[in-house]
# Entry
Amino acid sequence: MKNVIDIQHLKKSFGKNEVLKDIKLTLAKGENLVVMGKSGSGKSVLIKCLVGLIEADDGIINILDKNISELPDNELNELRKKIGFLFQSAALYDSMSIRENLEFPLRGLCNLTRQEIDAKVLEALKNVGLLEVIDKAPSELSGGMKKRAGLARTLILNPEIMFYDEPTTGLDPITSKEISNLILEMQKKFNTSSIIITHDIQCAKITSNRIIIIHEGLFVAEGTFKELEQSEDKWVRSFFK
Amino acid sequence: MPKIKAHASHTTANKEYPKGVLIESFVKFFTEVTLITKFTGKFFRQVFLPPYEFNELVKQCYIIGCKSLPLVGITGFIMGLVLTIQSRPTLAEFGAESWLPAMVAVSLIREIGPVITALICAGKVGSGIGAELASMKVTEQIDAMEVSGINPFKYLVITRIVATTLMVPILVLFSDAIALGGSFLAVNIEGDVSFQLFFAQVFEKLDFMDVLPSILKTFFFGFVIGLIGCFKGYYSNKGTEGVGISANSSVVISSLLVFIIDMIAVQITSLLI
# Structure
């Protein structure tokens, strides 16, 4: 199967703190890859390097056959339109309503009429079950609703790749399960390839095709949920208890 | 023994403390100046390039301009009123009371109006921009904009800097007009001067070189207020604590720059006249 992401020897340090030491990673088309690890192990830094929010010190990051470190700003922005990123806090724009939040990524697409934009917004909100909050401000939504609205905003451009940064953090178990199921549902519906950063075992179990465990900037274990759950390594096994 | 050791190291640290702080402050100051210069360069490189965010620019002009009108109007009115009341006794002492409208007008339009209005804008608008962008940074909203392929610098920074550059001169003109109204009222508290006579005296003594430099410098005031607010907010760190720091330092630095620009403008004007 064709790889949509191919990372070789990725390194990133902040001062003397080596966060990513020598990361090699591939993501196949349609695959859901979960990256797990302790807090501060470099998981979020990894996906921020992939979208160019953090500049890597060394290594090659190929996304959709393009080396992002060699791309000029305008081409990087075009590539970013094919990538969705759900932030830990959902990162909805406070000064805009949910409708305006969803319209915002569409502003670069000049060929869309007002009716087409409205239709896309309604469809995106319908997909995540949030039609009733379309004209509300982000501050009026609960944590779970914000995550769903954030997911709708990232999916509105029909991205080929999705990055989820701790999508279930701060949510109760029931809402966490709903978000995890929604991630899986959206992946099947839009045939996206995803990297999901999480601590949540239930989320990993529901969404993953493959799991990688990162420890002190290095990948220390890789496999399916079942394989890692029954790993011979005590430290890896302890993650799943 | 440990007590003596601790005391000794504390004394050594105290001796080295001022020197260390001084060097650190110099490094911090020059780093900040370099970063602001780079930020300004980035603004001029991108301001004329498409896409142009006209809707956001209009929205910012409304927020910065229209929403500041009441505050600027009230302070302008009080400024004109107080300046007239305070100046009257001194002028009366020299029998030059009839010069009051002209003197107040020249003071207001050349110096006090632009500077006070710019300081008010630095407090209201500069802190607002600094806090807004800093909170967007903390809550990853700027990152979200960037990953959705939209240039946050163009959308958030350029629109705000252009809006302050355009709106502060308009606010200054508005403030000057209201201040002259306040002055007219103050003149009439003790005297009886008609509206026509008051403004005839005002415009008799005001010439082109009083008005033009004072308007030109307000564009620079507006520019630095927007620039510093955006810079402090856009590069905010330290989480929510950083929001307060950004708002505060935006006001402090832009107020200081307003005075520095004013001083340079006065020097240039006096050389030209």
